[in-house]
Amino acid sequence: xxxxxxxxxxxxxxxxxxxxxxxxxxxxxxxxxxxxxxxxxxxxxxxxxxxxxxxxxxxxxxxxxxxxxxxxxxxxxxxxxxxxxxxxxxxxxxxxxxxxxxxxxxxxxxxxxxxxxxxxxxxxxxxxxxxxxxxxxxxxxxxxxxxxxxxxxxxxxxxxxxxxxxxxxxxxxxxxxxxxxxxxxxxxxxxxxxxxxxxxxxxxxxxxxxxxxxxxxxxxxxxxxxxxxxxxxxxxxxxxxxxxxxxxxxxxxxxxxx
Length: 258
Description:
- The protein is an alpha/beta fold.
- It has helices at residues 3-7, 19-36, 82-87, 105-119, 134-145, 180-185, 213-226, 251-257, and strands at 41-42, 50-53, 61-65, 91-95, 127-132, 154-158, 203-208, 229-233.
- It has a single domain (3-257), classed as 3-Layer(aba) Sandwich (Rossmann fold), CATH 3.40.50.
- The chain is built from eight helices and eight strands; from the N terminus they run H-H-E-E-E-H-E-H-E-H-E-H-E-H-E-H.
């Protein structure tokens, strides 16, 4: 494995394989679905899919865009965040998007944007949009690079990739089929900002101290580019950092749920 491939392989700092962490997401999401039961409902209309776990009317809403390098995971495998958020009185929504190679990244952005628009009907008094890894990229595209169709009060981008050009030269690109030009055109780091939450404090760009140097550099560069709050989370790697989003006792959770 060459250095570029290693730097853009998140598991290289987390035991060498993503499979145990994906299996953990899946198992905990199955448990969450059983625990939550009929409360879980589809976010469904033409061209829109995902899952919603509503709390009381007007409750704050956390919208999550999952990772998986645009080619793995799903809304259903992201339900593990819902129970701790429900206990805190938050509604939760996990957006679905078609994975590569069945869809290009442009379509994924469009599907996430449509999902955000559909969530306006919930009438949440506060909306936090959080994305992890590839989901951080999609969240940035749907809420900063283009005008968000839903008022976003806080944007939390976790262990994301914001300049896609290095990926062209890695195996990550095999189902994506990007070249330098198309990668640049889909890189939030290189694109104008069309909308944003109200203050610098309302955008958090985070990564784990056990993320690779490339993910850390991407986070630092994008935080500087958009004037956001950078946050390095101690004792976290690319996969377990996600749990901090729903834990207000952590630095990331405190900023997300403030």
